[in-house]
## 1
Amino acid sequence: MTRLILFGAAGRMGKEVDAAAAKTGDVKIVARVDASGADGCLSSLAEVTCSADVIVDFSHHAATKTLTDYAVKNGIPLLVATTGQTEDELAMIRGAAAKIPVFFAANYSLGIAALIRAAKAIVALYPDADIEISEKHHNRKLDAPSGTALSIARAISSVREGETAFTFGRGGQVKRQKNEIGIHAVRMGNVVGEHEVLIGTDNETITLKHEAHSRALFADGALVAAKFLVAQKPGLYSMTDLVGG
């Protein structure tokens, strides 16, 4: 049985994780923490008095220092499922990973992991292709572009030669450069999440698309990753480590 501290438990995704855990027979949430203190949650990690195997964070990147400090102090693996981290916060995550197992992903969908693997393989075959990434999310999402779109772009960059520049949206009268990856964000309604990668040459276009129909898929993926993380040594882990490739 994997004992889990759920941080951000009163939020939309926190509730999805709670519901997903209730359906499993091998995950138990031993503490629910949310800064708001809503829904009977503890308001801080300092109030947690029970032992746990892993912390799952679905709160906000501003809590990075609080989470990493607590996880390192108590020797508990940490799964981070927030995006929009500053460079300082990313450094905190890397620093924590030197001492405890840390799982950090912008998207916990198995389908997105498969899309990234496919995109890297295709781009390696078309080194001179133009690449554009578009993403759509609900109108309450704070960061743009999404952390997932940036993860896709970085993964693609890793198989291209030379420096790659990210262009966020397009405007004005500027010719597209060959080393660019265009990234475009749309915010509307209650869209759960859509990510599309277009890989184009003068003769053909290849399109890869993933569409999330329910936030439950992210909760399911996070629980799989949390159980994986408990058995790992200190280090920084991602969906690549979970699914291979």
## 2
Amino acid sequence: MTCCGKHHGVDTEPRAFAIADFWEEAENIRTFVFHGTLHSKPGQFCMLWIPGCDEKPFSIARDYDGEIWLTICKVGPATEKLFTLKKGDKIGLRGAFGHGFTILEKIPPAPFKKGEEQKQNVVLVGGGYGTAPLHFTGKTHAENGSDVTMIIGARSENLLIWDKKSEKSGFRTLIATNDGSVGVEGFTTHVLEKLISTEKIDLVQTCGPEKMMKAIAEMCLEKNVPCEVSIERFMKCGFGVCGQCVTETGEKMCQIGPCVSAQKAMSFSDFGNYHRGPEGQKVSW
């Protein structure tokens, strides 16, 4: 669904972008590169239109230095069609939409303490392909002077993504896999719980499977650690017209989210339990 022109200065009609490059991140997970910018902020999303097929929302993994990166998992007809496209083929992008992650302000130097730079401690927790947009978030935090820890989870080593990029960006990178094939055997929540018990953490932000994010939100609320989660819902227009992404409380997720506080997320009865499909039917996570 599109609407002519712009909404609050954001393109609501697709602009044509040629696929400049792509590569495999893991099985059925591919990063697509486009030249240009959507002027997005970390945590926002865009709508990707595949001509003759469909349009779907995707989180933005990178939007700087003249490149847009989208890391996409092949999960249905639209993404299956996208994966058949080649370099030079054109798609449509519009956005960026939604409310992104909070970026902590840089702490000014303390008076009379030259050389003692104060840094805030940010922990980002990604599960599966939800890890990709957190790298954009982490880069922005680091530029603002925060120390960044990236916790990356996957079922097994062959499904792990963005760990090397995270290390290359200078983030402390901690890995958890369900089968223990690399990193800690277990879940990202186990790694986060240990960090919370041993360090002062100023902010936790997470993107990935909703059950994982709910567990993280509950943990952070219990430990009094500020936390934000990125909630995925069925979105068609991206800017509050169609109402497809309305929450059980009547709020439009494309406008108040996708990134919301842990407190806000826990106020949704569907969070971590179910979401609604294209016909409004309840679909369990």
